[in-house]
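S.,

Sequence below, as promised.
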Amino acid sequence: MKVVRNLVFTLVIALVAAWPAAAQSDDDFSNELSYGINLNSNGGLLGGAFVRSSYFVKERLYQFGGLEIVEVKHPKENRYYSLETGDHFIAGKQNYMFVVRPHYGAEYVLFRKAAESGVQVNAVGAAGPSLGLLVPYYIRYNYGTGLGGQDIRTEQYDPERHRNFDSIHGNANVFTGLGEANLNMGIHAKAGLSFEYGRYKESITGIEVGFLVEQYFKDMIIIPQTKNNSTFASVYLNIYYGRRK
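The prediction came back faster than expected:
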């Protein structure tokens, strides 16, 4: 993983230093604001969301700052459904893992699109800190007698105490444990390619595909009964929209 991170940082530095300064051309923009959704191999169907602000440095080269918020799931998460309520829960899960990723990077235009159509291809590299939030996972558990009695309590899931799956009525709202979140620090780096579409120069629609690696200073415990990691690697797809001027 250290080799991957070094490659990403090298890419960012190379993008900044490799091309001599030049005047801004008609095809370059001064700044751009874009936003969209993130899908990644650690986040299930929808990983999260992001926003990014880019500005002109030299011909074909831009720098940007961004913020990404995603959920990271354990690869051994299994969804079960309550026969009583039809709601689902994750067996053995003790914490949600949410990550806030502020980052700074560079973007180089490899291929420009035509004036009012076509696709523009950019190389992208970025790095920054990772703020990992472990949020307690709460369930609704019925301590009733099973003879029609109901004693439903909302508690953090403990596989040692909540042994009977038939008594679990589903998971509670994610905001239930948000005030008890545990903050963990880490770093991340990513590299990828973006493909921009847009009929006019002022508006953009595009996708970005790439690879991200993230390192924390301790293991992030999501499901205690299985292996948990401090290093996470994923491929990602960003779908974004924006405007430039």
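Residues 77 and 90 are 6 Å apart (CA to CA).

Coffee later?
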